[in-house]
User: Fold this.
Amino acid sequence: MSTPLESWVEETAKLTKPSKIVWCDGSEAENERLAEEMLRDGTYIELNRRTYQSSYLHRSNPNDVARTENLTFICTPEKADVGPTNNWMAPDEAKEKVRPLFDAAMKGRMMYVVPYIMGPEKSPYSKIGVELTDSAYVVASMRIMSRMGKVALERLGSSSQFVPGLHSLGDLDPDRRFILHFPEENLIWSVGSGYGGNALLGKKCFALRIASFMARKQGWMAEHMLILGLEDPSGKVTYMAAAFPSACGKTNLAMMVSALEEQGYRVWTIGDDIAWMHIASDGTLRAINPEAGFFGVAPGTNEKTNPNIMGALHRNTIFTNVALTASREPWWEGIGGPTPSGLVNWRGEIHNGNSGAAAHPNSRYTVPASQSSSISPRWDDPEGVPISALIFGGRRAHLAPLVFESRDWQHGVFVGATMASETTAAATGAVGVTRRDPMAMLPFCGYNMADYFAHWLAIGPKLKHPPKIFHVNWFRRAADGKFLWPGYGENVRVLKWMLDRIEGGADANETPIGNVPTPGSFLLDGLNISPAALDELLRVDPTAWVEESKAIGRFFDKFGDRLPAELRTEHKALADRLERSVVTVK
Ligand code: SAT
Ligand code: MN
Assistant:
């Protein structure tokens, strides 16, 4: 008798008609064999073997360089179940429409069976997925990003408890590109893209969209959050999770080399993109990183912004859409130093300065997490780490102060639900437009966001010590357009302020939006920042916030009656506090 997995593989092969089915074991030998094949067919480009061992460059189709949110659908019987922020198709209609695109799609190609675990191998919180794909690049990427192969197959056994994900490159035509989620069946279908979150189905599709749906039913949380540990001078480590939209610095924050290392503050990395958090029996919120690697944005990464990752990228790394130097090393804008001559751009053309950036703005590295020297000794702890702070944030050139603390859990959920950020190159579409991105989950929540807010509200009271909730903005600009805050390793000063708040120290001023640090409550040793810049960073402008509050009201209106009443209450309280404060200022 065949197992549920075997039956599904067989059934899929009948539809997609591959020339061969390859069951992946995740071994070194298999990885080397695939690399050789990809070097032969041009999927991989060899890098300098001496300086970038077992590392490769991949160039994706120029029409396929970022997630495509407009082609991403949640397929549930009722449209109302996906809410106003998701694209919807009815499951039957979606299958009818997209099944023909899979018909014989793998003719002349391999179909790889890729079993994988999201989460530490032995964690009770981990889950199994299986991706069927015709892309060897996806197989090699999944091997870095998850616990892939034999370990997963052994854990699965003959069980039907896995998330099936069917992926085909199709013909890479955006008109025939669909990323479909069927949360009621735990099923994923993706066709027409070989890039990132569209194609590595364990990441956004499973670990966020499908998992968020599961998490609501099962009483846990699947969040778009990095996880870090902040070590204090006594050696105690406090764990924090932070949600920022894609390409807003989660990776750099999680891997930061602390500017306060001499004072005994150090940052340890658990994860850089996704957190699965459970209410543990001791009443703490416990987080695991479901991933095993980092799929990070390359441009802007250098020895100063992220020395830990720079050290990690010299082996076992796949680079996607970066530029190539004459000595066959990867290169991108903001890597540091002058632009070398003889560069080949991400499209494979000689870089001449007229053809835009040499590396695509959303070019990436895919690297095993264990290779970063910042990796926490507890990064694959099966029980996860207890979370003491949750941090929301985004890119706001104006308005949001460097940091503020919410009053309590309910207010914190309001702060997360009303987050906004300027868009980046991580998704197709305009860049730099401010959009509301609740909990950084706008493109990743697998159900109605109003219900997601209700789920958040319900979690807090179930925790013995709910984490404190903060909001940060590293991206505030002065009147001359320059960033006010140096960011990167200096962000540890903000984390330290949070730690002090958790432990009952550090002063704050109450403002209409929350508690903002007093300038004196920051440890500023060794940082050259003017008192005026610090004042501006911490300033809350009630008049500007009145406008923000109106925009929040319009955003909330989208959800109609489904929006939890608590959030309306919080919004009203904010509006009242702002009104009082505008009157006082006048
Ligand atoms: O979704 S991707 O995995 O392509 C990257 C991101 O947007 O975080
Ligand atoms: Mn992300």
About this structure: Residues 51 and 485 are 34 Å apart (CA to CA). The pocket of sulfoacetic acid (ligand 1) is lined by residues 67, 196-197, 203-204, 246, 295, 426 (CB under 6 Å). The radius of gyration is 23 Å. The first strand starts at residue 20 and ends at 23.
